[in-house]
Amino acid sequence: MTEQDKKRIGKFLSLVLRHDPDKIGLELDENGWANVKELIEKCKKHRFHFSEEELIEIVETNDKQRYSFNEKRNKIRANQGHSINIDLALSPVKPPEFLYHGTATRFLSSIMEQGIVKGSRQHVHLSKDKETATKVGARHGKVVILTIMTGKMQKDGILFYQSDNGVWLTDYVDVKYISK
Question: How far is 34 from 69, CA to CA, in rounded Å?
């Protein structure tokens, strides 16, 4: 399987596991898990052909670690970034004192007025380091990195979660917790 094939299939997996499982008639359980064999079969009907071994390779080599298998490797799900309503069954965890949010400069005035909103996603995504936040923000234009006072947020009763791939999640970041 070429890197180009992995990328193409990975993008399609992201679509069906995070946003539109109905596109291929796939059913996710309440926690976002899909049956691996069913996923492979339904993807084939939509011209995305890959074996179980190739799916394992895609999951293990994905640079963003977007997907996870259950222990038996018979179920797969996206780690975060869903626009569909699922329960990742994550427990609240104490965040570090500061986390980072990478965005494009064109969004800065809106963020400084409204805070960071989740939009169509289930959570706001925060990064543990500036390097990761820079990569995230670069996808949207000229990058600006915002420092988020997550320790203060947590002390103020705001909950944080951490996905299986290390992305920090929360519902909203008020302007008062953002530093440029």
Answer: 9
pTM: 0.77
What CATH fold (topology level) applies to the domain 99-179? ADP-ribosylation fold (3.20.170)
Separation CA 11–CA 3 (nearest Å):
12
Q: What class, spelled out in words, does domain 3-78 have in CATH?
A: mainly alpha
> Which sequence spans correspond to the domains of the chain?
3-78, 99-179
**Nearest C-alpha neighbor of 11 from the set 78, 71, 68:** 78
> pLDDT digit string (tens) for 38-86?
999 999 999 999 999 999 999 999 888 899 999 999 999 999 889 998 9
pLDDT tens across 146-177, in order?
Answer: 999 999 999 999 999 999 889 999 999 999 99
Identical fold for domains 3-78 and 99-179, yes or no, is no
Query: Any bridge partners for residue 162, and if so which?
Result: 168
**DSSP sequence for 101-151:** EEEEGGGHHHHHHH-EE-TTSSSEEEBSSHHHHHHHHHTTSSEEEEEE-HH
**What does the H/E/C string look like for 19-64?**
HCHHHHCCCCCCCCCEEHHHHHHHHHCCCCCCCHHHHHHHHHHCCC
